[in-house]
Task: inverse folding
């Protein structure tokens, strides 16, 4: 059992408080079996709303799955209290935005998609439904009369 942190890094232009929006936010991951090393070929997503029982009545997790290669039951759980926004002062630095508790597997890749939100750095303007799949996003803040953006999105996983 281990905890893995997803570290996010981007260049922010006139926005702050970049965050996943809602309990239904989809974390798209590729997972590696800790037993045989098999990596999922497809993106799999987990949300805070997902809850599956663990074998033997040991609680629940966001996702429980059997490895296709070795049939071992593995699980991953989103640690809700670790979800943290990425702010203007974090720009161009890696920051852990969420942690996952993993049993028998580890996350090896993350694909940001729709469902992020942010706020204007100097205004109260809110930007809901930001899609980061292209690793860049731009808009315009009417209140500040300036362009806003999130650029060069990248990530890494760390063991916590």
Result:
């Amino acid at each position: 059992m281990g905890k893995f942190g997803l570290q996010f890094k981007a260049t922010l232009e006139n926005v702050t408080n970049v965050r996943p929006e809602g309990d239904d936010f989809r974390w798209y991951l590729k997972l590696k079996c800790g037993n045989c090393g098999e990596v999922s070929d497809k993106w799999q997503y987990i949300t805070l709303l997902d809850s599956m029982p663990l074998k033997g009545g040991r609680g629940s997790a966001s996702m429980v799955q059997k490895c296709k290669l070795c049939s071992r039951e593995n699980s991953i759980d989103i640690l809700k209290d670790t979800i943290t926004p990425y702010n203007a002062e974090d720009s161009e630095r890696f920051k852990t935005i969420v942690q996952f508790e993993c049993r028998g597997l580890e996350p090896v890749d993350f694909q940001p998609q729709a469902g992020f939100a942010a706020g204007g750095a100097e205004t109260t303007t809110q930007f809901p439904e930001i899609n980061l799949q292209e690793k860049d996003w731009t808009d315009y803040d009417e209140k500040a009369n300036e362009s806003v953006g999130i650029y060069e999105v990248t990530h890494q996983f760390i063991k916590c």
Remarks:
- Residues 64 and 75 are 4 Å apart (CA to CA).
- The longest strand covers residues 146-159.
